[in-house]
Amino acid sequence: MIKRKIATFLLCASLLGTNLSFSSTAFASSVNSNVTYTQNDTLTKADEANIKESINEVLSFKYEILKTGKSKNYSDIIKNPKLLELINAKSKLDVEWFKKFDGKTDEYISNVNIINSSKTAFKTYVINVNYNVEFKIKGTDVTSKSGEKYRFEVKCENGKWYITKMLNLNETNESKNNQLKQEVFLDIDNNFSDYEDKIDLELKNINDNYENMDENYNNFIQSTPNNNNSENRLVGRSYANFNYNAKAAVSYAQKYGKDPNPNYVYSRDSRGKGVDCTNFVSQCVLAGGIPASSYWYAYSNSWVRVIDFWSYMTSNGYGSTVEGVRGDGTQGARAGDVVQFANNLYWSHSVILSGTILGGQWVYCGHSDERLDYPLYIAYDDGGYKRLRTLKFWH
Predict the structure, then answer these.
(1) What pTM did the predictor assign?
(2) What is the DSSP code string of 207-241?
(3) In the chain, what is the straight-line distance between the N-terminal and C-terminal CA atoms, in Å?
(4) What are the structural domains of the chain?
(5) What are the residue boundaries of the Putative amidase domain, all occurrences included (predicted)?
(6) Do 385 and 343 meet the contact criterion of CB atoms below 8 Å apart?
(7) Is 358 left (phi over 0), alpha (psi -120 to 50) or beta?
(8) What is the DSSP letter of 259?
(9) pLDDT in tens, 299-314
C-alpha cells in the first residue's frame, strides 16, 4: 500500500512538472468521457481576433446592403440553420426597404469589442460584445453613429470559428419581443434562455414586415418635414406658456447621444439591462427649457417611461399631439421634437429628432442603442416597428 501511494505521488508530481509547457486549457478524462475545464481556460488573442472579425462581418450586414444594395451569404460563418434563415430574411427585407429611400453609403467603419466571455463546452464560448459603426449617407455631410450590444455563442471546428447563436441585447429588441418572458442581461452566465422561441418570433416579425412593407412605408413617410405646419401646431397652444429651445435640446442630444452623460444614471431594468431611451430624451428636453416639476424629474416614472412621458408632456400642454393623415406620424415635426415607436401592442421607444438629410429624411439621437444623427428610416425597419408618433413642442 505504501509503495502504491509513493508511485501515485511521483506520477502526480511528474504531471505537474510537465504541465508548465502546456496551454492554459487543461482537462481530465473519466469513464464517461466528460470534460472538466479550468477557470484559466481562456481564448487566445488570435482566437479573439478571428471571432471579432466574424462577428463584425455578420453585424455589418445591413451596412453592406446600404453600401452595395445587395445581400451576402453568411453560411461560411453561421452554423445554425435557423439563425442563418433569420439573417437571410432580414437582409431580404433591408434590400427592398432601403430602395424606397434611395439611401446609400460609400463606406462604413465598424468594430467589435468583447465585453466578457465564458467557456460553456469543448471549444464553445458565450461572448458579450459591443458593436460600433459610423457612416455617411451619400450626398450628406452628416456622420451617423451607432453603438449596440449583442450576445453570441461561437464554436471552433477544424480550426475555424463559427457563430452558432446570436442575441440582440438592445432595448428595441426587447420592446418588440415583449410576448416572451425576457431573460436578457449582461450576466454572461445567463446565456440564451428561450432562444429558439425568440428566433422564431423574430423571424415571424421580419416575414410579416416584408409582406406588409408597403403599408409600413405609407405609415412612415409622414416623417417628411413640413414647414407649413402652423395649423397642426395650434392644438393645445393655449396651455403652453413658454417657448421650447429646440437648438439647445438638439445640441445636448448630439453631445450625449453616442456617449452618455456621466452625471446621469443610465437607466436599467431589474435585470441590469439598458432601457435608457426615455431617460435620455427627458434630459434633452430639460436642456431645451421644459422645467422639472414634482411629477417630472430625474428618474421619475414620467421621466423614464415611454407612455408616462408622453402623457405628462401632452397633459401639461407642452406640445401638439395632432395625428398625421394616415394615423400617428411625424408630419409637421421639427428638429428637437420627440418621436415614439410602437410595435403591434404598445408604444415602446423614444428618440429625439436632430435634423434632416437628403432634402427631408429625418435623423435622430437616442439611447439603448446609443445613436447619433442616425437615419430614422433604418431604425424603424431595424426595430420591426409598425407605427410612430411625434410630440411636437412649441418652438
Answers:
(1) 0.81
(2) HHHHHTHHHHHHHHGGGS--S--TTGGGTTGGG--
(3) 92
(4) 45-211 (3.10.450), 216-393 (3.90.1720)
(5) 243-379
(6) yes
(7) left
(8) S
(9) 999 999 999 999 999 9
